[in-house]
Write a structure and sequence with these properties.
InterPro entries: HDACs, His_deacetylse_dom, His_deacetylse_dom_sf, Ureohydrolase_dom_sf. With about 350 residues, the chain is an alpha/beta fold. It has one domain: Arginase, Chain A (3-Layer(aba) Sandwich). The chain contains 10 helices and 10 strands. An 8-stranded parallel sheet has the order 4-1-5-10-9-6-7-8, sandwiched between helices. Strand 9, helix 9 and strand 10 form a beta-alpha-beta unit. The longest helix is centred in the middle third of the chain and has 20 residues. The chain is globular. About 55% of the residues are buried. It binds N-[3-({4-[(3-aminopropyl)amino]butyl}amino)propyl]acetamide (SP5) and zinc ion. The site of zinc ion (ZN) has 6 residues, from loops.
Length: about 350
């Protein structure tokens, strides 16, 4: 399987995120990807492919032009506010909810930070745009491989993507890599593409991007949003709208769920994807379902991820794997590579 490794991933290097009124060290760190890389190499799994150039045209198929322009210039604007900001992460402090306008673009940089985000846990740093853009290019690479006839490909990248929407960042995500891969598969000629999101957290960004579309099916198994991040989306009654009616499937599970129950939900999601008639699948591969994950509540063990890979392979569908969450940093390498290893059996 071809692997697209984002060698600029470490350029995105948040120091702190807001948690319970305090700035705490980021959970989403460069070492996560380095552990996956080391595990791939030690098992001799995957061949490393050159990362393609990604143009604005594909990014704009998923994200709003004004959001992309904002992200590209955000760090320079932040530092221009105060030279001391060069030593600080940029975090939002204001948000326009319900009755505020969203069709305005304030001059104020902090006001635009809030317009284009939904939490204070996703620091923007000097290299965020560089890392996120090359990450999206890795996702584009996986779609190219599938279109060329490969059975699977892997985008080894961070920051992750599935919480990023058409015009907002959040949940450590800036560009929606999985959505970009799915869109690229559509643009490359496939009629029906599925996104299977197995990250602990609901992929609210991906869901929102495709919610009214009948050509991309979104399925997710995740922590119940009544108690788990991202809280405001991911409920079982969200089934899609307009042309996308019936093309969205959420399977929320309570904190403490073990692998047997989780695997049953995955089977249900994969059966729905099969019945819908998907020709290929993008897998949002988060491994924060792991029992020792510091911010999550499921109880999967390392060996279980081999079974996850086997279950995905049993669909017979070509799979573009895109790395998402997983914060038990060293184990994230073993767990993510176990999925790929199980897939190739
Ligand atoms: C891609 C992804 O997995 N994003 C997850 C974003 C979660 N952000 C909220 C984190 C809440 C941190 N809770 C800390 C609990 C410590 N016991
Ligand atoms: Zn997650």
């Amino acid at each position: 399987m071809q692997v697209f490794y984002n060698d600029r991933q470490a350029a995105h290097h948040g120091k702190h995120e807001m948690f319970r009124g305090e700035l705490v060290p980021c959970f989403e760190v460069p070492a996560r990807v380095e552990h996956v890389l080391a595990e791939l190499k030690s098992r001799k799994l995957g061949e490393f492919a050159p990362v393609p150039e990604i143009g604005d045209a594909l990014l704009q198929r998923v994200h709003a032009p004004r959001y992309l322009r904002f992200l590209e210039g955000a760090w320079d604007e932040w530092v221009a506010l105060d030279p001391k900001n060069a030593q600080r992460d940029a975090l939002p402090s204001y948000w326009p909810i319900r009755t505020f306008r969203h069709d305005v673009l304030p001059e104020s940089f902090p006001a635009r930070m809030g317009l284009f985000s939904y939490d204070a846990g996703s620091p923007l740093t000097s290299g965020t745009w560089t890392a996120a853009r090359q990450g999206a290019a890795c996702a584009w690479g996986t779609a190219q491989r599938l279109l060329a006839g490969d059975r699977a490909a892997f985008a080894l990248t961070r920051p992750p993507g599935h919480h990023a929407g058409h015009d907002f960042f959040g949940g450590y995500c800036f560009l929606n890599n999985a959505a970009i891969a799915a869109q690229a598969l559509r643009d490359g000629g496939l009629q029906k593409v599925a996104v299977m999101d197995v990250d602990y957290h609901h992929g609210n960004g991906t869901q929102a991007i495709f919610y009214e579309r009948g050509d991309v099916f979104f399925a997710s198994v995740h922590g119940d949003p009544r108690t788990e991040y991202p809280y405001y989306l991911g409920y079982a009654d969200e089934r899609g709208a307009c042309a996308g009616e019936g093309a969205n499937l959420n399977l929320p599970l309570p904190r403490g769920t073990d692998f047997v129950t989780w695997r049953g939900a995955l089977a249900k999601a994969l059966e729905a994807i099969r019945a819908w008639g998907a020709q290929a699948m993008v897998v949002s591969l988060g491994v924060d379902t792991f029992e020792d994950d510091p911010i999550s509540g499921f109880r999967l063990r390392s060996g279980d991820y081999l079974r996850v890979g086997e279950d995905l392979a049993a669909t017979g569908l070509p799979c573009a794997f895109v790395f998402e969450g997983g914060y038990a940093v060293a184990a994230a390498g073993v767990n993510a590579v176990n999925v790929l290893d199980g897939f190739r059996q």
